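Marked as duplicate of an earlier ticket. Keeping the data here for the record.
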Amino acid sequence: MDYLEGREVVERLSLDLNIIDHFANNNIDFIYRLDTQLPVEELVSYWQSMISTSFDNTSSIIEVEVQAFTPEMTEKIATQVLAYGSELVNTLSQNARRDAVKFAEEEVRRAELRLKIIRMRMKEFRSAESSIDPTKNAEVQIELIAGLEKQLLDTRSRLATLVGTIDESSPTIRQLRKQEDVLIKQILRKRDEISGKEPVHLEQTEGNTDRLSSLSSLLANYEELVVEQEFAQQAYTAALAGLERSRAEADRQQRYLAVFNPPSKPEEAIYPRRLINTLILFLGLLAVWALCTVITYSIRDHLK
């Protein structure tokens, strides 16, 4: 409301419709004519006398009435004022919507960046270790140990059956004892590989230093990356959901200006109200005459 009656609208109307020349036209009576030498503050005051705005809080209806000295200019000014008002409402609504979703968009960008970083780390890990999923390697190792333990159990069962039946120094017993030792060493080695006591592989890095990677440390690093990636994915999903909620709320609170009674060219001059103005002038002159009469009689009586 204040915007339509303010300085910016006066300046824009001066540029778009040259209202200063219109209101300062010499054909207009001197009472209502605009003095172009007035400062801008007085021009704004003059404009405020030519525009009337009201707002109904119940219906949210804004009513604007514009005065000018020709029907054509009145319609033009009213149309232009309506355009300024619509532009202001749209700008304020867009700014409010942008501010409402700005924080949510920042959250999405941060979550997306975090997810990209952890995915890149996962890619680098898999490339460095030449393994898509170290847990699969661990499962293979466990299956190998289970197979070796089964072979060890079978070997010991055969030994238990043969001991006491044949001589301890017989080739069969010696072969089974040797096989038992080999299986035990293999099982221990596999267990050490999983626990980290025995290196799984040896690589030469760019700095020409050795790097020992145990299966247990690989699993620990991999599981840490997996957990970080899951958290990053959940945070990204939550940020996207928050952005959608923010946009929906911003759309729900969006304001716009709908015109149901557009400006039209007036057919009859409403102002100035000649009859009322004439009556007011007559009453004013009558009051002055009465006052002068009272003063005159008072002076006459005083002289007597």
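See parent ticket for discussion. The CA atoms of residues 76 and 289 lie 44 Å apart.
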